[in-house]
Amino acid sequence: MNSQHTRPICEIRKVWTVFGSNVVHQDLDLSINAGEIISLVGGSGSGKTTLLRHIVGLTRPTKGEVLLFGKNLHEMDRVPQQRLMNRLGMLFQQGALFSALTVFDNIAFPLRELKQFDEATIHQLVLHKLSLVEMEPDTGSRLPSQLSGGMIKRVALARALALEPELLLLDEPTAGLDPDRSEKFVELIKSIKHSLGLTVIFVTHDLDTLVSLTDKVAVLADKHIVANCGLRELGNIDHPFVQNFFQGVRVRLERT
Ligand SMILES: Nc1ncnc2c1ncn2[C@@H]1O[C@H](COP(=O)(O)OP(=O)(O)OP(=O)(O)O)[C@@H](O)[C@H]1O
């Protein structure tokens, strides 16, 4: 096998995150291979969003390394760092669309920031991303306030995919959606993941989303990763949070 395929796309090594007296991550290690779809779970306040923010370069850990595509994101000059970050897409909780910009301009935003494409090309790329998330081209002229919760998620996903990332990070992708919309959004993520061959890391509290989307689960508890394995293997991990969590997972696995 080609060594590029076996190399982790993201490696977190001995990471500490400390806010004042609050130690959130302590000696945390996590490795994610290309092509995986992995969910990050843990109790409220255990540091999941903070870890995603380290991975996308928004914040820097107090100590330790975050390697993306084999490179230390936090020890690079701004230009190569930005180039590396362009290989990631992030879907934030609530979508985080720019409220004053239309759907079209929201999706075009990262493309325009690159300053590599003319407007005609940007137009084509935005329409392509809209179709990828199964939205009509005329939705492009709407403002975020004119969209339903499910549509906001789709537009935010289209924007996260604008630069054709290799790694997609999703923070609570189905939060705020009713079960029907949530299921449809999960199906959309799955089909995009398969058609684009992405690696996906997502945070969710929703066990239905987790069981439906994931290959692997990484459990954050006691300030570090206590399990990183397939869903069914969670049952073998002797940790109270994992055992408790696995009860909910097992019920859903039995239904599938
Ligand atoms: N910028 C910050 N300054 C100080 N403390 C912070 C900051 N960001 C996060 N924290 C703290 O870090 C801890 C982890 O927060 P984080 O949002 O990463 O948890 P989480 O696992 O995503 O939680 P939830 O599941 O409730 O969204 C919390 O105690 C939070 O208060």
Automatic annotation (TrEMBL):
Molecular function, one GO term: ATP binding
Organism annotation: Methylobacillus flagellatus (strain ATCC 51484 / DSM 6875 / VKM B-1610 / KT)
Name under which the protein is recorded: ABC transporter related protein
UniProt KW keywords: ATP-binding, Cell membrane, Membrane, Nucleotide-binding, Transport
PROSITE patterns: ABC_TRANSPORTER_1 (PS00211), ABC_TRANSPORTER_2 (PS50893)
Record Gene3D superfamilies: P-loop containing nucleotide triphosphate hydrolases
InterPro entries (alphabetical): AAA+_ATPase (IPR003593), ABC_transporter-like_ATP-bd (IPR003439), ABC_transporter-like_CS (IPR017871), P-loop_NTPase (IPR027417)
Domain ABC transporter: 10-247
Entries under PANTHER family matching the protein: PROTEIN TRIGALACTOSYLDIACYLGLYCEROL 3, CHLOROPLASTIC
